[in-house]
Fold:
Amino acid sequence: MVTMTTTLQDDVVAWYDRNGRDLPWREPACGAWGVLVSEVMLQQTPVARVLPRWREWLAAWPEPADLALAPTADVLRAWDRLGYPRRALRLQECARAIVERHGGAVPDDEAALRALPGIGEYTAAAVRAFAFGRRATVLDTNVRRVIARAVAGTALPPPHLSAVERERAAALVPSDDHAAARWAAASMELGALVCTARSPRCEECPVVGRCVWNAAGLPPDEHAGRRRSQGWHGTDRQVRGTVMALLRAHDAVAGPELVARLRETLPTGLDAAQVERSLSGLVADGLAVLDGDRYRLP
Structure:
């Protein structure tokens, strides 16, 4: 088992050395803050959409102290359509905490990272590995899928991260800091480019010959019945996203005008209760402010 694990790591890292994408947050000069921003932006968002926003963000706020002092409305406008705009608020809260607790420098300790607003288990491990080159068990969707197929022999990992997955992933992480960070980046890239969820290109995979899932004949997803597909059209999420786009484009919008614009933009069937629920939710989440009868960004 030790020999197979070592070979698996070496082959994946060798593939990464030949095929890894040239992304700005992978450059040594990027710095820990740039890596942290990229990891928050990349959550459930494709690289192609993140790249321009990331560059603009770092140009405007190159250090945590810069973002900490920025007007929140500017932060939300800069986030644009990356999705889940609460991430932008958490990122600004994170910047303020870095300034207050760590003198403006992103900490390299995993516990300190996880104590920051909006930074969970995955992001803390990723920043530790990619920004500081330290050993960490980095488990995003792509890495989980690579390990599920190559080692566990399942089409896709379960909907929720399990203790068994954590143990299996931790066993694959090299003990050396540099090697561990390379394995984290390489396994993530393999999942993003080759071992994809819907159309894996097994013929291009560097470890296809040892992949347990491939050897088993590519059995179907055993967890398919437990997965929930998240729609968009007609949902509160769509209404909220449309409201945020309107608020980013205007200093303030009166309630009746906002409703009228929503009806123009969204398909028929929009009901008053859904609009009220969406607007109230945005205000409660700190993404919008109601002044009199006018809504605006905070």
Notes: The mean pLDDT is 93.
